[in-house]
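User: Please predict structures.

Assistant: First:
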Amino acid sequence: MSQKVAVLGTGKIGEALLSGMIRAGWAPADLLVTARRPERAEELRTRHGVTPVTNAEAAKTADTLILTVKPQDMGALLDELAPHLPADRLVISGAAGIPTSFFEERLATGTPVVRVMTNTPALVDEAMSVISAGSHATAGHLAHAEEIFGAVGKTLRVPESQQDACTALSGSGPAYFFYLVEAMTDAGILLGLPRDKAHDLIVQSAIGAAVMLRDSGEHPVKLRENVTSPAGTTINAIRELENHGVRAALIAALEAARDRSRELATGKKD
């Protein structure tokens, strides 16, 4: 933890990562940040005790660089970093859709690159971060990335060929659950409940169901069947979900998210 780590383009996820690393034992003095706006950089210094630097300074002094800028801004950032970045520094990309080869082609030969897709529950230390190695990344580099992202949740190693699928499933995944809770809340209001009571009922049900999925060891089908009595309320609701093609719609939605992740790698904006 004495190594210097720089977070470049420190937005909400980058700040959540910094905060988690500090709680996990990293010294703020070993953490560097860059931000587009000087006032944002100063805010990070005041809040966390980290050191704001320029992108070039981060490239020269950090042992590990975590790039959290938007995919469309990554090429320009790499052009700025390349003249200053030695080949022995670890580069971790958090940009959706961009393969490790994109970085390897623009940085010094042999630069180790690790690709990570995390998600917004990093803000509450419940992230799912999916980690893949580039051509020059070693097991030690992967372990270091796991140590960093493990500060804000769970990590999982996958082949890079599976990253777009993971982006669709867990990178975008929280939004699907928020969407479902939003729809269920509207249904609760339609059924005569006040919004706040509908919200509380649904959120606690979601938390309880998630804990059961995580801790019970049971298949989700078995857990669902345990709630589904013959000729009861639940089976009638599920029949309507099936009649309206909800399962098929979810599969199509995830395929669309995966396809968009692939498009981002080509620089396509629309």
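Second:
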Amino acid sequence: MANTMNTLSSDAENFFIDALPGQERYVAPEEETPLRAVDSIDESAPPTSMWADAWRTLRKNPLFIISAILIVFIVVVALFPQLFTSNDPKYCTLDNSLAGPSAGHPLGFDKQGCDVYSRVIYGARTSISVGILTTLIVALVGGLIGAIAGFFGGWVDAILSRITDIFYAIPMLLGAIVVLQMFRTSTSIWKVVLVLALFGWVSIARIARSAVLEAKNLEFNTASTALGSTPMRNLFRHVIPNSLAPVIVIATTSLGSYIVSEATLSFLGIGLPSSVVSWGGDISTAQSLLRTNPEVLFYPSAALAVTVLAFIMMGDAVKDALDPKSRTA
């Protein structure tokens, strides 16, 4: 047996490693097992970050491409409505009440004799403005509160978490209705934005707190502290940037719900005043025409549905790119 083992050890083509009787393992020589092309690493390629990987994934996602095209188109309509219509959405005459499509008025007129097409075009500005502004405020306030609560912990976390729980117990739409009833004399779009943000920051705060709790215990934060970095510097320089992914996902997905909330409040007559052109206000005005002239109700409803769908699709695509574990396909 010893002679046999000596012979095997001198043979470069097969040998046994740490083998017991009956448990021998064959290991091929290294020169016979070259590194395959699929396993090779391009050492000359620059390193990529999580955001670069996410962008590479998004570019290949048809859901992202379709939603991005829709959102870009809707934003262009909101910013430059005069490129799509030359009619004044507030110019109404009862002579055209419920008149059908005509030259320059492809969607006809509503009950007040206003051009439906121009009101749909100009209504995009209101809905997009409310959705984007509310999302920005909610992400900033909720993300900051959640980050501070998760990073410092202790009594800071206890106080902020209890405040978050109080607001979380209040339904956003119900709370917005109660508060808006107190400020019905105000006609500013900021009234709706601030009220929606007041009750909408809670979800992002909870997500941000969880992300920061996970990020603050990672090695980079410990190393930064060991090098003499202050807690506030660690929070804003290292922890928050590495906790943004779930916050961005929730903010993108929630943007569509804020647009729907604004339309709902305007539909109920307590959101934006009738002097402001909005899809929710037009839907509210046209609800009495559902049986006789449903097309007057259909056009602003379809514009609202397409816009919300585009942002929801964008949110799903971003979620798949930034959080691969949550991918549905």
